[in-house]
Design a protein that fits this description.
single chain, alpha/beta, Nitrilase/N-carbamoyl-D-aminoacid amidohydrolase, six-stranded mixed sheet, 22% helix
């Protein structure tokens, strides 16, 4: 019997946060996601991934300590709320949040919640950009320190990578070696500098590692910064790099695909990338001197 898992991802336009409290901003963004959660439940989605920093705007467009107040413990109030929804719909949820580990130490984090509502753990974004206009992430985030965990959910083994991480193949490979069958990559990325890589890098991760990839992006131009267009086009790729489903460029919506996990074995049997790896020859990549 085929192991088919129905997965969904959100892509949502953020409203203007001007004049609103941080709590109002967070509540409004969560409320915008609720119809998509209901739609996912109606469609029988088993694994649902929200977009990067899903309960707020992409505030990294400016450097303002005010936004530290949007951070919260993980697990915490938002994951508690999502756990109740996960349990109600028997749906695994990947919930990207701004995490406060302690005062002054903050992470770009994704919590993973199982279909019974149990909190399984979290991934913290490893690679933090700070070199492009309006992507001032080092002002807000400490580099992740939890490695590349893979979460054994009711429906399959799920790994998470976040946005800028996708430019680094090492973590994508680490997730595959740790047993990931599905790697979800929530993102916030704009046209002009990254779009030409959007379907190259992440389908390449799927092919190089023989697993499914789902990656989602925001939509629209976020006020008050209006620094670029979040171009949506969230998609799922199979282990051969075939795009199974794709979102629009500019609409808030749910993107859904059925992932046949049996394809992983078929592809890895054909392409023996894991068997033919040469970690003994990769010392220089780790900063080790060759003998």
């Amino acid at each position: 019997m085929a192991r088919v898992v129905r997965c969904g991802m959100t892509q949502v336009a953020a409203p203007d946060p001007t004049g609103k409290s941080l709590q109002e901003i967070s509540d409004e963004m969560i409320d915008l996601h609720m119809p998509l959660v209901a739609e996912a439940a109606a469609q029988g989605v088993q694994i649902l991934c929200f977009q990067e920093l899903f309960n707020g705007p992409y505030f990294c467009a400016e450097q303002d300590p005010r936004w530290y107040g949007l951070a919260e413990p993980v697990p915490g109030p938002t994951t508690d709320r999502m756990s109740a929804l996960a349990r109600e719909h028997e749906m695994v949820m990947v919930v990207p949040l701004y995490e406060e580990h302690m005062t002054g130490v903050y992470y770009n984090t994704a919590a993973v919640i199982d279909a019974d509502g149990a909190y399984l753990g979290k991934y913290r974004k490893t690679h933090i950009p700070h070199c492009l206009p309006a992507f001032w992430e080092k002002f807000y985030f400490t580099p992740g320190d939890l490695g590349y965990p893979v979460f054994e959910t009711r429906y399959g083994n799920v790994g998470v990578y976040i946005c800028y991480d996708r430019h680094f193949p090492e973590g994508a490979r680490a997730l595959g070696l740790a047993g990931a069958e599905i790697v979800l990559i929530p993102s916030a990325t704009t046209a002009g500098h990254s779009e030409y890589l959007w379907k190259l890098e992440q389908t390449s991760h799927a092919v190089a590692n023989g697993y499914f990839v789902g990656t989602n992006n925001r939509v629209g131009r976020e006020a008050p910064w209006d620094f670029g267009e979040f171009y949506g086009t969230s998609y799922f790729s199979d282990p051969r790099g075939k795009i199974l489903a794709e979102g629009s460029r500019d609409q808030t919506e749910l993107v859904v695909a059925d992932l046949d996990l049996d394809l992983i074995e078929e592809v890895r049997t054909q392409w023996q990338f894991y068997r033919d790896r040469r970690p003994d020859a990769y010392g220089p990549l780790m900063g080790e001197e060759s003998s």
